[in-house]
Target: Phosphate ABC transporter ATP-binding protein
Amino acid sequence: MDGAVQGPHATPPGTQPAEPEEAAAPLATLQANRITAWFGDRKVLDRVSLTMPAGQVTSLIGPSGCGKSTFLRILNRMHELVPSATLAGEVLLDGEDIYDPKKKLVEARKHIGMVFQKPNPFPAMSIYDNVIAGLKLTGTKASREQKDYLVETSLAKAGLWKEVKDRLRSPGGGLSGGQQQRLCIARSLAVTPRVLLMDEPCSALDPTSTRVIEETMLELAKEVTIVIVTHNMQQAQRVSQQCAFFLAAHGKPGVIVEHGDTAAMFDSPIDPRTFDYVNGRFG
Ligand SMILES: Nc1ncnc2c1ncn2[C@@H]1O[C@H](COP(=O)(O)OP(=O)(O)OP(=O)(O)O)[C@@H](O)[C@H]1O
Model:
């Protein structure tokens, strides 16, 4: 990493969002191979493999406790933050193992961003500083002009620029829940991730904010590979091209029962358990 922000800068502030003058990083495919995960001696995932194709939205669906969030957190090395947590298997970002001991943890987090269920901006920090907060964490240096550019383009991509462009110095905590979630998306985008993981990003939001986030996701998927955990079957159908159905039988670790094209999973699932779940018959 050269420590510099990618892309051009110098768009006069207060005007229309700037268009990037350079191509973004090519779209990336994320591949999980035979992921097994434990908390202490309790196995919660068993040999889960899934390819999350470049430029697509992949939904992870399934009943509570079947390991969807654990799987998502393994995809950007957050699982290892839990002291008792261990795992086996590999996660490849465009063929490169993110758990390679030679690779820095911060690299995985930079390339693979995460948006959480509850919007978590730094409440007292300005909207502007919230967006660029990740630069420091990833050791990325940027000039004032580069920061201005990043703030504007990231907020525009997150669908928030127009609403906040005149109050960039106001605290992030003063925004509505839906706006805060889009601010968190902008913060993730500012470090130019190649994959964005979203853990039930709309579950704390009203239907209007949910719709705005979903529209934002569909736009973002053109340049960032997205993986979303959702309990909302309509949302999975609206936003994702691919779906994976997780299930944990009583006392057993979670597995993927079925995955594939979202429309096919909902219209003609192969496994009867998938049929029951997508039709609201259990879970
Ligand atoms: N920090 C932790 N320590 C111990 N066990 C955990 C921890 N986090 C999750 N688990 C357990 O791992 C299993 C999988 O949990 P996980 O949160 O991944 O499921 P999920 O499918 O995302 O559930 P939900 O849909 O309710 O969010 C559960 O049995 C849960 O109790």
User: Anything to note?
Assistant: The longest helix spans residues 144-157. The beta strands are 30-39, 42-52, 57-61, 85-93, 96-97, 112-115, 195-199, 225-229, 242-247, 255-261. The domain at 30-278 is CATH 3.40.50.300 (Rossmann fold). DSSP finds eleven helices and ten strands in the chain.
